[in-house]
Amino acid sequence: MITADALRGVPLFSALPPDTLDYVAGAVEDIRLVAGEYFAQEGDERALFVVIEGRAEITKVVNGDELVIGVRTPGMLFGEVPMTLSTKFPASGRATEPTRILRLGVSEYHSLAALAPSVAAHVGGVARVYLTDLQNWAAATPEAEAHLIGPRADRRVREIATFLSRNEIPFERVAPDDAAADGPVLELRDGSRLVDPTMREIAAAVGLGVQPTATEYDVVILGAGPAGLTAAVNGAAEGLRTLVVESLAPGGQAGTSTRIENYTGFPYGVSGDDLASRALKQARRLGAEIVVTRSVTELRPGGHDVVLDGGDVLRAPLVVLATGVEWRGSGRATDRRRRPGNLRVPGASTPATPDDGTSRTIPCTTLTSG
Ligand SMILES: Cc1cc2nc3c(=O)[nH]c(=O)nc-3n(C[C@H](O)[C@H](O)[C@H](O)COP(=O)(O)OP(=O)(O)OC[C@H]3O[C@@H](n4cnc5c(N)ncnc54)[C@H](O)[C@@H]3O)c2cc1C
Questions:
Q1: Which of 149, 192, 321, 361 has the highest CB neighbour number within 10 Å of its CB?
Q2: CA 71 to mean position of chain CA atoms
Q3: Regarding predicted confidence, which is higher, 113 or 339?
């Protein structure tokens, strides 16, 4: 815990009388971070941070890349803009070396501002300086990775557009200038063109992972719906070599939902797209590897082998099945039976082999967020 004496050395607090300093000392959180640790994430609820020791950098995701847009050294603030404008964090903050930082929550900040109006004036002044920079970053037009050429209503064009969006690849649509085109065309930044491409061809062309980089992992997760991405975040956060294999694109069923009201931590609801996009960013940032357009076709119980389409074999002591469900259509509106992902597990009956009627346990964990 920081003392009132130590606070006197911080420019924001240096002119405060002793009883106000005592209040601040009791109200702030004294946080120690290691290099690379985040203390605020873009989109978080507001708070005010003051760097006491070490160094932090401010980052913002622009066009899918996390860019460093500022640096904070001892005495400097972060959170002045959201605190002044009552907005969420427009950027993230992370330590670049062992760092000590103070955090003042919203109600504590307002109490302090009532006790010492000079604090709010100081914070507001700093906010004005940074606001112009933030406006410029916010105005940056997403740079398209690709142009999707084809009629908007075409089923394949829509599928490709959804695939690109769910993989967070910025693209622009272009009306076709050739009515006799052989299907949708994806034109890449380097000028190359893919005509009526498969999703895997698209994924490879735009730099998404389609081939695992290793054959051995600590954990392999099947499916990148909410359950699979949650498992990936937790596995990677624990330092496990974590691979997610997704047969199409991240998000699963939830990615198609316009509004999810019952996901903990989102008091006003969240769109399925937003939820999936946040989870994907988090999993990637923590180091999970994600391959898309690849299906797991078989689990071999004895050796912990995971077989992908095309025959690649991966090994992991822990396999998490987060393949969700597919709706089994019979043509009748009343038939809403569900079946899990289409996997073959020789001699075993798990949620992955719904119809074979046999019964044996394999070392898998099955997750679903539904
Ligand atoms: C329109 C809509 C609205 C919804 N709204 C809500 C709501 O408001 N609240 C709520 O709680 N729930 C809602 N749901 C349900 C919720 O989306 C699901 O419960 C949730 O998505 C299940 O998550 P999951 O990760 O278990 O599976 P899924 O989301 O089904 O994800 C499974 C993933 O595994 C992949 N996969 C399958 N087989 C394989 C394989 N063999 N190899 C590799 N990958 C594979 C699939 O491609 C998929 O991406 C909604 C669903 C829909 C469709």
A1: 321
A2: 23
A3: 113
Q: What is the pLDDT of residue 334?
A: 52
Q: Is ligand 1 within 6 A of the CB of residue 167?
A: no
CB 194 within 8 A of CB 186: yes
* pLDDT on residue 273: 86
Q: What is the pLDDT of residue 352?
A: 43
pLDDT value of residue 180: 57
CATH number at residue 72: 2.60.120.10
Q: End-to-end distance of the chain based on CA atoms, in angstroms?
A: 42
Element (H, E) at 325: strand 325-327
Q: Is 323 in the pocket of ligand 1 (CB under 6 A)?
A: yes
> pLDDT for 247-288, tens place per residue?
999 999 888 888 888 988 888 888 888 888 889 988 998 899
pLDDT at 227 > cutoff 50: yes
- What SS3 state is found at 291? strand
Domain that holds residue 56: 4-138
Q: Are 242 and 217 in contact (CB under 8 A)?
A: yes
Q: Does 315 reside within a domain?
A: yes
Distance from C-alpha of 180 to C-alpha of 285, rounded to nearest angstrom: 43
How remote is the CA of residue 251 from the centroid of ligand 1, in Å? 7
The reported pLDDT for the residue numbered 325 is 76
Domain boundary among 86, 118, 138: 138
In whole angstroms, what is the distance from residue 316 CA to residue 277 CA? 26
DSSP string, 20-72: HHHHHHHHSEEEEE-TT-EEE-TTPPP-EEEEEES-EEEEEEETTEEEEEEEE
Residue 349 has what pLDDT? Answer: 43
Q: Whose CA is nearest to atom 1 of ligand 1?
A: 257
Closest by alpha carbon to 260, among 248, 247, 271, 274?
271
Say which residue, 167 or 62, is predicted with more confidence.
167
Query: Which residue's CA is the closest to the ligand 1 atom numbered 3?
Result: 257
Do 247 and 334 lie in one domain? The reply is: yes
Would the CB of 248 count as within 6 Å of ligand 1?
Answer: yes
Determine the Cα–Cα distance for residues 197 and 204; give it in Å rounded to an integer. 11
Residue 294 has pLDDT above 80, yes or no: yes
